[in-house]
Structures are given as structure tokens and as C-alpha cells.
Design goal:
With 288 residues, the chain is α+β, with helices and mostly antiparallel strands. The chain is 28% helix and 28% strand. The strands form two sheets. Strands 5, 6, 7, 8, 9, 10, 11, 12 and 13 form a nine-stranded mixed sheet that branches. A five-stranded antiparallel sheet has the order 4-3-1-2-14. The structure holds pyridoxal-5'-phosphate (PLP).
């Protein structure tokens, strides 16, 4: 933060930062697995695109940010980590209400790797509830910009817990499936994959599934997925930097397929983790 590396307990943001006051921020999260960044270039592309759309500017270029992220990892010593880069609107030194007067700020941190699903859930598949909460539409907040507008997602999560499920999927304005708190969703039917297109974050893990499908010769498309279609799928999985590809075996009261982690999900998951040592997809951290 502010050109310094700090222990997490000392890293504090100003209460006047618009990132805190108005969720006026964009961010990205990349993971490090066994000492290597996974698809860092794609995360940096998305981060810089988001800043440009929000008219934010930092005094750092891509290679500066890459260096800062590497230093966070090296200083923390984590071998598997969740590494977040954030640009906030910041604040104006004169308390101006004009966002053009704000001095944008950069924060980055590294914490140990965390997953949406724990190891038991990965093995048996998650129980997900479909919420009636509507994801904020892209005409209000551009879903291509990774953002902290999470009140809808957190509401969905509480509703899911109330119904005995482990996580949530929320819907778009047309009542089709959108996404969940920190993940995209895919369905598999008769060997073909499909994932929602409208109003969702273009996840890097979602993109990675597209890339893995083309390598494996699997057909994948994007488009509206309604509740019935999802429940009737042979397999369902969610995707996130926080955990990779994670099976869903129960949606509300419906058992998905035969109720176990499906073969397409297993095949994709295996290749996904293999790619973490492939130099075309990952890059080593220098720990010094
Ligand atoms: N959708 C939302 C709302 C997210 O916040 C995230 C990640 O945090 C995702 C989807 C998954 O994106 P990625 O695969 O880039 O982690």
C-alpha cells in the first residue's frame, strides 16, 4: 500500500476512500499454486480493462504490478496463495465530490489459498440453492468490470444457508441463472457444456474451461440457462480462482445426474490442475 510492504495487520484503508464508502473500486484476484502464478496475464488484462472503463489511473504499469504481486508472495512466503490487486477511487484532498478530483489508490495483498468448496465438498459435490435475488444488471454496473457490488450475492448466500444449502446461485433480470458469490456456473447435458452469458463476470476460470474444452474436443456454448435446464443437467460445476472447477451434485431439492461428481467435471478438473505446471499457463515466483 502507498509504496510500502506491510504486515496484514498494519494495512489500513482510509475511511474517506470512495472504494470503502461507495464500492467505487475494481480489483482482480490471481492464484499462486505451488510457487507459480496461474494465468497472471489474463488477470492483469481484466484489471487494466476495468480501470480504463472506470476512468481510473495508477502510477504503475503492468510490469510494475507484476513485480509488486511477486514481492507480496515472496515476502509472505506463501507457496499457494490468493493474491488480490485493487484500485480504489481514493479521495480528494479538498473533499471535492467530483470523482475526477480523486487520487486513485493501489493496494495488493497475498493470503493463503482458499477455496469456495472444502475437500469433502469437492469429493461429493456442493449443495447449491437457487435464489430469487436478482444480480445487479449490467446496465447498472458493467459485469465485465470485476467489482465489489456484492449485496445481492451475500443476500443470496444467507437465503441459501437458511434453506440448508452450502452456497447460492442468483438469477438475472429474466430469471435465468446468473452466477454465485465469487463463481460462474456450467452445466453439461449429453456431453455438451453451457454457461450463462448475460450479466456475469467473464471469469478467468470460465475462460480456462473454454480453453480446456477446445483442447479436449468438448463442445461448449454460452447462453441463457433457466432453472429447469440447470436441474435437468447431467453434470453441474462452478468455476472460480478460489478453488478452480468444483462439482455441484444437488440444486435445491434436486439431485444432479446420478448425484456424484461427473466424468466431464473430473476430466476438466484433472487437466485444469495439470496446467498449473505448464509454462504456457503459469509462471514461477522468485522467492528471495
Ligand atoms: N463471478 C463473480 C461475481 C466473481 O466475483 C468471481 C471471482 O471472484 C467469479 C465470477 C469467478 O471469476 P474467476 O474465475 O476469474 O475467479
Amino acid at each position: 500500500m502507498d509504496g510500502q510492504y506491510l504486515p496484514m495487520s498494519e494495512a489500513k484503508v482510509s475511511v474517506l476512500d470512495w472504494g470503502f464508502l461507495h464500492s467505487d473500486a475494481t480489483y482482480d484476484t490471481v492464484h499462486v499454486w505451488d510457487g507459480r502464478f496461474f494465468r497472471l496475464d489474463l488477470h492483469l488484462d481484466r484489471f487494466f480493462r476495468g480501470m480504463e472503463k472506470l476512468r481510473m489511473k495508477l502510477p504503475y504499469n503492468r510490469s510494475d504490478i507484476e513485480k509488486i504481486l511477486s514481492n507480496c508472495i515472496a515476502l509472505s512466503g506463501h507457496k499457494s496463495a490468493y493474491v488480490e490487486m485493487i484500485c480504489t477511487r481514493g479521495g480528494s484532498p479538498t473533499f471535492s465530490r467530483d470523482p475526477r478530483d480523486a487520487e486513485n489508490r493501489f493496494i495488493a495483498f497475498a493470503v493463503p489459498f482458499g477455496s469456495v468448496a472444502n475437500s469433502e465438498q469437492l469429493e461429493r459435490g456442493l449443495h447449491v440453492a437457487i435464489s430469487n435475488t436478482v444480480r445487479i444488471p449490467p446496465k447498472s454496473v458493467d459485469s465485465a468490470i470485476k467489482n465489489y457490488h456484492w449485496l445481492d450475492l451475500v443476500k443470496g448466500l444467507f437465503e441459501a444457508y437458511d434453506s440448508g444449502a452450502e452456497t447460492a446461485l442468483i438469477v438475472d433480470i429474466n430469471d435465468n441463472i446468473a452466477e454465485g458469490p465469487g463463481f460462474n456456473v456450467f452445466m453439461v447435458k449429453n456431453g455438451r457444456l453451457k454457461t450463462p452469458a448475460y450479466g456475469v463476470l467473464a471469469g478467468i476460470t470460465r475462460q480456462t474451461v473454454f480453453d480446456l474444452c477446445s483442447e479436449l474436443g468438448l463442445l461448449v456454448s454460452t447462453g441463457d440457462v433457466d432453472r429447469g435446464e440447470l436441474k435437468d443437467a447431467d453434470e453441474v460445476f462452478i468455476t472460480s480462482t478460489a478453488g478452480g472447477i468444483m462439482s455441484v451434485t444437488r440444486i435445491d431439492e434436486t439431485v444432479v445426474g446420478d448425484g456424484t461428481v461427473g466424468s466431464v467435471t473430473r476430466q476438466l478438473t484433472e487437466l485444469y490442475w495439470k496446467k498449473h505446471v505448464d509454462p504456457a499457463w503459469s509462471r514461477p515466483i522468485i522467492y528471495e
